[in-house]
Amino acid sequence: MTRSPSAEPAPDAAPPSGCPAAVPLSGPGFQTDPQAVYRAMRREHGSVVPVELPGGFPAWLVVGYREIHQVTSDPELFPRDVGLWNQWPHVPDDWPLLPMVGRPLPSIYFTAGEEHRRHVRMVVPALEAVDPFEIRGHCEQLADRLIDGFCARGDADLVAAFCEPLPVLVLARLVGFPDDEGADIARVLKDLADGGPEAQSAHQRFGAHMARLVAARRAEPGDDVTSRMLAFPEEFTDEEYMLDLMAITAAGHLTTADWIGNSVRLMLTESDFADSMARGRRSVADAMTEVLWEDGPTQILAGRWPVRDTRLGERRIKAGDLLLLGLGAANTDPLIRQGAPGAPASERGGSGAHLAFSHGEYRCPFPAQEIAEIIARTGIEVLLDRLPDLELAVPEGELVRRPSAFLRGTTALPVRFTPVPTTGDLS
Protein backbone atom coordinates (compact mmCIF):
# COMPACT_ATOMS: atom_id res chain seq x y z
CA MET A 1 0.00 0.00 0.00
CA THR A 2 1.42 3.36 -0.97
CA ARG A 3 0.32 6.95 -0.95
CA SER A 4 1.64 10.29 -2.10
CA PRO A 5 0.68 12.75 0.63
CA SER A 6 0.42 16.44 -0.10
CA ALA A 7 -0.50 19.47 1.93
CA GLU A 8 -2.41 20.87 -1.05
CA PRO A 9 -6.21 20.74 -1.05
CA ALA A 10 -8.07 19.00 -3.84
CA PRO A 11 -9.14 21.75 -6.24
CA ASP A 12 -9.91 19.22 -8.96
CA ALA A 13 -11.80 16.84 -6.68
CA ALA A 14 -15.31 16.54 -8.10
CA PRO A 15 -18.32 14.25 -7.94
CA PRO A 16 -17.66 10.90 -9.63
CA SER A 17 -18.19 11.32 -13.34
CA GLY A 18 -21.44 10.58 -15.08
CA CYS A 19 -23.79 11.17 -12.13
CA PRO A 20 -25.78 14.02 -10.56
CA ALA A 21 -24.22 16.53 -8.20
CA ALA A 22 -22.88 14.91 -5.06
CA VAL A 23 -24.69 15.13 -1.73
CA PRO A 24 -22.63 16.84 1.01
CA LEU A 25 -21.98 14.32 3.76
CA SER A 26 -22.58 16.86 6.50
CA GLY A 27 -25.28 19.10 7.88
CA PRO A 28 -27.90 19.10 10.64
CA GLY A 29 -30.03 16.40 9.00
CA PHE A 30 -27.56 13.73 10.09
CA GLN A 31 -28.06 14.86 13.69
CA THR A 32 -31.82 15.39 13.73
CA ASP A 33 -33.19 12.69 11.38
CA PRO A 34 -30.62 10.71 9.39
CA GLN A 35 -33.27 8.27 8.16
CA ALA A 36 -35.04 11.15 6.40
CA VAL A 37 -31.72 12.04 4.76
CA TYR A 38 -31.26 8.43 3.62
CA ARG A 39 -34.80 8.26 2.20
CA ALA A 40 -34.17 11.43 0.19
CA MET A 41 -30.90 9.96 -1.07
CA ARG A 42 -32.65 6.78 -2.23
CA ARG A 43 -35.38 8.70 -4.04
CA GLU A 44 -32.91 10.84 -5.97
CA HIS A 45 -29.90 8.57 -6.42
CA GLY A 46 -30.84 4.94 -5.76
CA SER A 47 -28.80 2.49 -3.73
CA VAL A 48 -25.35 3.97 -4.45
CA VAL A 49 -25.16 7.71 -3.77
CA PRO A 50 -22.48 10.18 -4.94
CA VAL A 51 -21.40 12.16 -1.89
CA GLU A 52 -18.88 14.85 -1.09
CA LEU A 53 -16.71 14.77 2.03
CA PRO A 54 -15.37 17.88 3.78
CA GLY A 55 -12.57 19.35 1.70
CA GLY A 56 -14.38 18.53 -1.54
CA PHE A 57 -13.36 14.86 -1.72
CA PRO A 58 -15.69 12.61 -3.76
CA ALA A 59 -16.96 9.25 -2.54
CA TRP A 60 -19.85 6.82 -2.96
CA LEU A 61 -22.23 6.09 -0.07
CA VAL A 62 -23.72 2.60 -0.38
CA VAL A 63 -27.20 2.72 1.18
CA GLY A 64 -28.66 -0.49 -0.27
CA TYR A 65 -28.69 -3.61 1.90
CA ARG A 66 -28.01 -5.93 -1.07
CA GLU A 67 -25.26 -3.70 -2.41
CA ILE A 68 -23.47 -3.62 0.96
CA HIS A 69 -23.65 -7.42 1.04
CA GLN A 70 -22.18 -7.48 -2.47
CA VAL A 71 -19.28 -5.21 -1.53
CA THR A 72 -18.48 -6.85 1.80
CA SER A 73 -18.76 -10.38 0.36
CA ASP A 74 -16.09 -9.73 -2.31
CA PRO A 75 -12.85 -8.65 -0.58
CA GLU A 76 -10.84 -9.41 -3.73
CA LEU A 77 -12.69 -6.77 -5.78
CA PHE A 78 -13.49 -4.45 -2.87
CA PRO A 79 -10.63 -4.74 -0.35
CA ARG A 80 -10.29 -2.54 2.69
CA ASP A 81 -6.99 -1.28 1.30
CA VAL A 82 -6.82 2.44 2.04
CA GLY A 83 -3.63 2.74 0.00
CA LEU A 84 -5.70 2.27 -3.18
CA TRP A 85 -7.59 5.55 -2.74
CA ASN A 86 -7.26 7.63 -5.91
CA GLN A 87 -7.45 10.91 -3.96
CA TRP A 88 -4.28 10.49 -1.89
CA PRO A 89 -2.25 13.01 -3.96
CA HIS A 90 -4.65 15.73 -2.78
CA VAL A 91 -5.18 14.78 0.88
CA PRO A 92 -3.58 17.20 3.38
CA ASP A 93 -2.00 15.73 6.50
CA ASP A 94 -4.43 17.64 8.73
CA TRP A 95 -7.60 16.51 6.92
CA PRO A 96 -10.16 16.07 9.75
CA LEU A 97 -11.57 12.77 8.44
CA LEU A 98 -8.22 10.96 8.34
CA PRO A 99 -9.04 9.13 11.61
CA MET A 100 -12.23 7.81 9.97
CA VAL A 101 -10.73 6.89 6.59
CA GLY A 102 -7.34 5.86 7.92
CA ARG A 103 -3.78 5.65 6.64
CA PRO A 104 -1.82 2.64 5.39
CA LEU A 105 -0.61 1.22 8.71
CA PRO A 106 0.37 -2.33 9.76
CA SER A 107 -2.67 -3.01 11.96
CA ILE A 108 -5.65 -5.34 11.86
CA TYR A 109 -7.86 -2.44 10.76
CA PHE A 110 -5.75 -0.96 7.96
CA THR A 111 -4.36 -4.03 6.22
CA ALA A 112 -5.89 -6.19 3.50
CA GLY A 113 -5.64 -9.71 2.11
CA GLU A 114 -3.18 -12.12 3.69
CA GLU A 115 -1.61 -9.39 5.80
CA HIS A 116 -5.02 -8.67 7.34
CA ARG A 117 -5.61 -12.37 7.95
CA ARG A 118 -2.20 -12.63 9.67
CA HIS A 119 -3.32 -9.99 12.19
CA VAL A 120 -6.70 -11.71 12.62
CA ARG A 121 -4.96 -15.00 13.47
CA MET A 122 -3.17 -13.24 16.32
CA VAL A 123 -5.88 -10.91 17.64
CA VAL A 124 -9.06 -12.99 17.50
CA PRO A 125 -7.87 -15.93 19.65
CA ALA A 126 -6.57 -13.43 22.24
CA LEU A 127 -10.09 -11.95 22.43
CA GLU A 128 -11.82 -15.34 22.34
CA ALA A 129 -9.91 -16.42 25.45
CA VAL A 130 -11.53 -13.71 27.58
CA ASP A 131 -13.97 -15.33 30.02
CA PRO A 132 -17.51 -13.88 29.60
CA PHE A 133 -18.04 -14.20 33.36
CA GLU A 134 -14.85 -12.21 33.93
CA ILE A 135 -16.13 -9.46 31.62
CA ARG A 136 -19.44 -9.33 33.46
CA GLY A 137 -17.70 -9.24 36.84
CA HIS A 138 -15.45 -6.35 35.79
CA CYS A 139 -18.43 -4.53 34.31
CA GLU A 140 -20.61 -4.90 37.41
CA GLN A 141 -17.81 -3.67 39.68
CA LEU A 142 -16.88 -0.71 37.49
CA ALA A 143 -20.52 0.21 36.80
CA ASP A 144 -21.20 0.31 40.54
CA ARG A 145 -18.10 2.45 41.05
CA LEU A 146 -19.23 4.96 38.41
CA ILE A 147 -22.81 5.08 39.73
CA ASP A 148 -21.45 5.64 43.24
CA GLY A 149 -19.97 8.87 41.91
CA PHE A 150 -23.40 10.44 41.30
CA CYS A 151 -26.14 8.29 42.85
CA ALA A 152 -26.47 10.43 46.00
CA ARG A 153 -27.10 13.63 43.98
CA GLY A 154 -30.32 12.64 42.26
CA ASP A 155 -29.20 13.89 38.85
CA ALA A 156 -26.43 13.22 36.33
CA ASP A 157 -25.36 13.42 32.70
CA LEU A 158 -25.26 9.71 31.93
CA VAL A 159 -23.08 10.13 28.83
CA ALA A 160 -20.20 11.79 30.69
CA ALA A 161 -20.64 10.01 34.02
CA PHE A 162 -21.45 6.48 32.85
CA CYS A 163 -21.85 5.60 29.16
CA GLU A 164 -18.50 6.91 27.94
CA PRO A 165 -16.16 5.82 30.76
CA LEU A 166 -17.59 2.33 31.40
CA PRO A 167 -16.55 0.54 28.16
CA VAL A 168 -13.00 1.84 28.11
CA LEU A 169 -12.46 1.06 31.81
CA VAL A 170 -13.54 -2.54 31.20
CA LEU A 171 -11.50 -2.82 28.00
CA ALA A 172 -8.43 -1.39 29.75
CA ARG A 173 -8.63 -4.16 32.34
CA LEU A 174 -9.07 -6.84 29.66
CA VAL A 175 -6.00 -5.76 27.69
CA GLY A 176 -3.91 -5.54 30.85
CA PHE A 177 -3.92 -1.98 32.22
CA PRO A 178 -4.30 -1.17 35.93
CA ASP A 179 -7.40 0.86 36.78
CA ASP A 180 -5.57 4.14 37.34
CA GLU A 181 -4.15 4.04 33.82
CA GLY A 182 -7.54 3.03 32.43
CA ALA A 183 -8.99 6.31 33.68
CA ASP A 184 -6.40 8.28 31.72
CA ILE A 185 -7.07 6.22 28.59
CA ALA A 186 -10.75 7.12 28.96
CA ARG A 187 -9.79 10.82 28.90
CA VAL A 188 -7.49 10.26 25.91
CA LEU A 189 -10.21 8.53 23.90
CA LYS A 190 -12.71 11.25 24.73
CA ASP A 191 -10.29 13.84 23.32
CA LEU A 192 -9.87 11.67 20.22
CA ALA A 193 -13.63 11.27 19.74
CA ASP A 194 -14.26 14.99 20.14
CA GLY A 195 -11.93 15.67 17.20
CA GLY A 196 -10.89 19.05 18.63
CA PRO A 197 -7.46 20.66 19.01
CA GLU A 198 -6.40 18.00 21.54
CA ALA A 199 -7.05 15.10 19.15
CA GLN A 200 -3.55 14.89 17.70
CA SER A 201 -1.79 14.95 21.07
CA ALA A 202 -4.39 12.48 22.40
CA HIS A 203 -3.49 10.06 19.62
CA GLN A 204 0.18 10.31 20.58
CA ARG A 205 -0.63 9.74 24.26
CA PHE A 206 -2.79 6.77 23.30
CA GLY A 207 0.10 5.21 21.39
CA ALA A 208 2.47 5.85 24.29
CA HIS A 209 0.11 4.01 26.67
CA MET A 210 0.06 0.99 24.37
CA ALA A 211 3.82 0.99 23.83
CA ARG A 212 4.37 0.93 27.62
CA LEU A 213 1.83 -1.88 27.96
CA VAL A 214 3.57 -4.02 25.35
CA ALA A 215 6.92 -3.53 27.12
CA ALA A 216 5.41 -4.29 30.54
CA ARG A 217 3.65 -7.46 29.40
CA ARG A 218 6.72 -8.71 27.55
CA ALA A 219 8.66 -8.36 30.80
CA GLU A 220 5.90 -9.80 32.98
CA PRO A 221 3.14 -11.69 31.13
CA GLY A 222 -0.31 -11.97 32.69
CA ASP A 223 -3.79 -13.32 31.97
CA ASP A 224 -4.78 -10.59 29.55
CA VAL A 225 -5.28 -9.90 25.84
CA THR A 226 -1.87 -8.26 25.38
CA SER A 227 0.04 -11.18 26.91
CA ARG A 228 -1.84 -13.66 24.71
CA MET A 229 -1.04 -11.58 21.61
CA LEU A 230 2.65 -11.51 22.55
CA ALA A 231 2.62 -15.29 23.05
CA PHE A 232 1.26 -15.94 19.54
CA PRO A 233 3.90 -17.93 17.59
CA GLU A 234 4.03 -15.73 14.47
CA GLU A 235 6.43 -12.78 14.55
CA PHE A 236 5.08 -9.22 14.87
CA THR A 237 6.84 -5.92 15.51
CA ASP A 238 6.21 -3.79 18.59
CA GLU A 239 4.54 -1.24 16.31
CA GLU A 240 2.12 -3.90 15.06
CA TYR A 241 1.23 -4.98 18.61
CA MET A 242 0.75 -1.34 19.61
CA LEU A 243 -1.44 -0.50 16.61
CA ASP A 244 -3.59 -3.61 17.03
CA LEU A 245 -4.15 -2.82 20.70
CA MET A 246 -5.08 0.75 19.77
CA ALA A 247 -7.56 -0.59 17.19
CA ILE A 248 -9.14 -3.02 19.66
CA THR A 249 -9.58 -0.40 22.35
CA ALA A 250 -10.64 2.53 20.17
CA ALA A 251 -13.09 0.51 18.06
CA GLY A 252 -14.72 -0.97 21.14
CA HIS A 253 -14.89 2.25 23.16
CA LEU A 254 -17.12 4.83 21.49
CA THR A 255 -19.34 2.35 19.67
CA THR A 256 -20.14 0.52 22.91
CA ALA A 257 -20.60 3.82 24.76
CA ASP A 258 -23.11 4.97 22.14
CA TRP A 259 -24.82 1.56 22.18
CA ILE A 260 -25.38 2.02 25.92
CA GLY A 261 -26.47 5.64 25.56
CA ASN A 262 -28.80 5.05 22.60
CA SER A 263 -30.41 2.07 24.34
CA VAL A 264 -31.03 4.01 27.57
CA ARG A 265 -32.36 6.91 25.53
CA LEU A 266 -34.83 4.56 23.80
CA MET A 267 -36.04 3.25 27.15
CA LEU A 268 -36.51 6.76 28.56
CA THR A 269 -38.15 8.38 25.53
CA GLU A 270 -40.33 5.68 23.93
CA SER A 271 -43.31 5.26 26.23
CA ASP A 272 -44.56 2.13 24.46
CA PHE A 273 -41.18 0.48 24.87
CA ALA A 274 -40.97 1.48 28.53
CA ASP A 275 -44.47 0.13 29.17
CA SER A 276 -43.57 -3.17 27.47
CA MET A 277 -40.47 -3.47 29.66
CA ALA A 278 -42.51 -2.76 32.80
CA ARG A 279 -44.91 -5.55 31.86
CA GLY A 280 -42.09 -7.98 31.11
CA ARG A 281 -42.81 -8.16 27.38
CA ARG A 282 -39.57 -6.41 26.35
CA SER A 283 -36.10 -6.58 27.83
CA VAL A 284 -32.80 -4.72 27.87
CA ALA A 285 -31.65 -7.08 25.12
CA ASP A 286 -34.68 -6.10 23.02
CA ALA A 287 -33.82 -2.42 23.40
CA MET A 288 -30.22 -3.07 22.42
CA THR A 289 -31.27 -5.02 19.31
CA GLU A 290 -33.75 -2.31 18.32
CA VAL A 291 -30.96 0.26 18.56
CA LEU A 292 -28.69 -1.79 16.29
CA TRP A 293 -31.42 -1.73 13.64
CA GLU A 294 -32.74 1.81 14.00
CA ASP A 295 -30.13 3.92 15.80
CA GLY A 296 -26.82 2.11 15.48
CA PRO A 297 -23.62 3.70 16.81
CA THR A 298 -21.81 3.29 13.47
CA GLN A 299 -23.94 4.84 10.74
CA ILE A 300 -21.26 5.05 8.04
CA LEU A 301 -18.10 2.98 7.85
CA ALA A 302 -15.04 3.68 5.71
CA GLY A 303 -14.24 2.12 3.50
CA ARG A 304 -13.68 -0.11 0.51
CA TRP A 305 -11.64 0.69 -2.60
CA PRO A 306 -12.24 -1.33 -5.80
CA VAL A 307 -9.10 -2.68 -7.45
CA ARG A 308 -10.54 -2.11 -10.95
CA ASP A 309 -13.37 -0.27 -12.67
CA THR A 310 -16.67 -2.01 -11.94
CA ARG A 311 -20.41 -1.49 -11.57
CA LEU A 312 -22.37 -1.37 -8.34
CA GLY A 313 -26.10 -0.86 -8.38
CA GLU A 314 -26.61 1.35 -11.42
CA ARG A 315 -23.29 3.15 -10.99
CA ARG A 316 -19.96 2.92 -12.75
CA ILE A 317 -17.29 2.89 -10.04
CA LYS A 318 -13.68 3.65 -10.91
CA ALA A 319 -10.68 1.82 -9.49
CA GLY A 320 -9.61 3.48 -6.26
CA ASP A 321 -12.90 5.32 -5.65
CA LEU A 322 -13.81 5.48 -1.96
CA LEU A 323 -16.89 3.43 -1.05
CA LEU A 324 -18.51 4.29 2.27
CA LEU A 325 -20.74 1.62 3.81
CA GLY A 326 -24.04 3.19 4.89
CA LEU A 327 -24.79 0.64 7.61
CA GLY A 328 -27.51 2.74 9.24
CA ALA A 329 -29.21 3.39 5.90
CA ALA A 330 -29.02 -0.25 4.77
CA ASN A 331 -30.70 -1.45 7.96
CA THR A 332 -33.78 0.56 6.98
CA ASP A 333 -33.70 -0.34 3.27
CA PRO A 334 -37.38 -0.87 2.26
CA LEU A 335 -36.34 -3.98 0.34
CA ILE A 336 -35.64 -5.86 3.58
CA ARG A 337 -38.60 -4.57 5.57
CA GLN A 338 -41.14 -7.32 6.17
CA GLY A 339 -43.47 -5.21 8.30
CA ALA A 340 -44.47 -1.58 8.15
CA PRO A 341 -41.79 1.11 8.39
CA GLY A 342 -40.75 1.44 12.01
CA ALA A 343 -41.73 -2.14 12.80
CA PRO A 344 -39.63 -3.70 15.58
CA ALA A 345 -36.64 -5.81 14.67
CA SER A 346 -38.51 -9.01 15.55
CA GLU A 347 -40.81 -8.38 12.58
CA ARG A 348 -37.95 -8.21 10.08
CA GLY A 349 -35.70 -10.83 8.56
CA GLY A 350 -34.28 -12.05 11.86
CA SER A 351 -33.03 -9.86 14.67
CA GLY A 352 -29.40 -10.74 13.87
CA ALA A 353 -29.57 -9.76 10.18
CA HIS A 354 -28.67 -6.13 10.83
CA LEU A 355 -25.41 -4.67 9.54
CA ALA A 356 -24.46 -2.75 12.68
CA PHE A 357 -21.19 -4.74 12.93
CA SER A 358 -20.68 -4.64 9.14
CA HIS A 359 -20.43 -7.91 7.19
CA GLY A 360 -17.94 -10.20 5.55
CA GLU A 361 -14.21 -10.69 6.12
CA TYR A 362 -13.67 -7.25 7.65
CA ARG A 363 -16.67 -7.19 9.95
CA CYS A 364 -16.17 -6.67 13.65
CA PRO A 365 -14.77 -10.02 14.93
CA PHE A 366 -17.37 -12.14 16.75
CA PRO A 367 -15.50 -12.21 20.09
CA ALA A 368 -15.28 -8.40 19.99
CA GLN A 369 -19.03 -8.24 19.37
CA GLU A 370 -19.63 -10.52 22.35
CA ILE A 371 -17.41 -8.38 24.60
CA ALA A 372 -19.28 -5.21 23.55
CA GLU A 373 -22.67 -6.86 24.07
CA ILE A 374 -21.78 -8.07 27.59
CA ILE A 375 -20.43 -4.64 28.58
CA ALA A 376 -23.47 -2.79 27.23
CA ARG A 377 -26.11 -5.17 28.61
CA THR A 378 -24.48 -5.53 32.03
CA GLY A 379 -23.93 -1.81 32.35
CA ILE A 380 -27.57 -1.02 31.55
CA GLU A 381 -28.85 -3.73 33.89
CA VAL A 382 -26.75 -2.43 36.79
CA LEU A 383 -27.86 1.14 36.06
CA LEU A 384 -31.57 0.25 36.04
CA ASP A 385 -31.22 -1.91 39.13
CA ARG A 386 -29.48 0.85 41.10
CA LEU A 387 -31.69 3.71 39.81
CA PRO A 388 -35.10 2.16 39.03
CA ASP A 389 -36.98 5.49 38.69
CA LEU A 390 -34.56 6.98 36.20
CA GLU A 391 -36.13 9.62 33.92
CA LEU A 392 -35.05 12.36 31.53
CA ALA A 393 -34.33 15.69 33.17
CA VAL A 394 -34.98 17.69 29.96
CA PRO A 395 -37.55 17.46 27.16
CA GLU A 396 -36.59 14.87 24.54
CA GLY A 397 -36.33 17.61 21.91
CA GLU A 398 -33.43 19.21 23.79
CA LEU A 399 -31.20 16.14 23.50
CA VAL A 400 -28.38 16.78 21.03
CA ARG A 401 -26.77 14.19 18.78
CA ARG A 402 -23.07 14.07 18.00
CA PRO A 403 -22.31 16.29 14.97
CA SER A 404 -21.16 13.47 12.70
CA ALA A 405 -22.60 11.64 9.72
CA PHE A 406 -20.44 8.64 10.63
CA LEU A 407 -21.29 8.15 14.32
CA ARG A 408 -24.67 8.20 16.07
CA GLY A 409 -24.66 9.11 19.73
CA THR A 410 -26.06 11.63 22.17
CA THR A 411 -23.66 14.31 23.41
CA ALA A 412 -25.39 14.44 26.82
CA LEU A 413 -28.17 12.50 28.52
CA PRO A 414 -29.35 14.50 31.57
CA VAL A 415 -31.41 12.37 33.98
CA ARG A 416 -32.92 12.62 37.43
CA PHE A 417 -33.80 9.95 39.97
CA THR A 418 -34.40 9.41 43.66
CA PRO A 419 -31.02 9.68 45.42
CA VAL A 420 -29.75 6.33 46.69
CA PRO A 421 -26.80 5.30 48.90
CA THR A 422 -23.47 4.33 47.45
CA THR A 423 -22.46 0.67 47.56
CA GLY A 424 -20.01 1.60 50.32
CA ASP A 425 -22.83 3.05 52.40
CA LEU A 426 -24.80 -0.18 51.96
CA SER A 427 -22.00 -2.45 53.20
From TrEMBL:
<dbReference type="InterPro" id="IPR002397">
    <property type="entry name" value="Cyt_P450_B"/>
</dbReference>
<dbReference type="InterPro" id="IPR036396">
    <property type="entry name" value="Cyt_P450_sf"/>
</dbReference>
<protein>
    <submittedName>
        <fullName>Cytochrome P450</fullName>
    </submittedName>
</protein>
<comment type="similarity">
    <text>Belongs to the cytochrome P450 family.</text>
</comment>
<feature type="region of interest" description="Disordered">
    <location>
        <begin position="1"/>
        <end position="26"/>
    </location>
</feature>
<feature type="compositionally biased region" description="Low complexity">
    <location>
        <begin position="1"/>
        <end position="11"/>
    </location>
</feature>
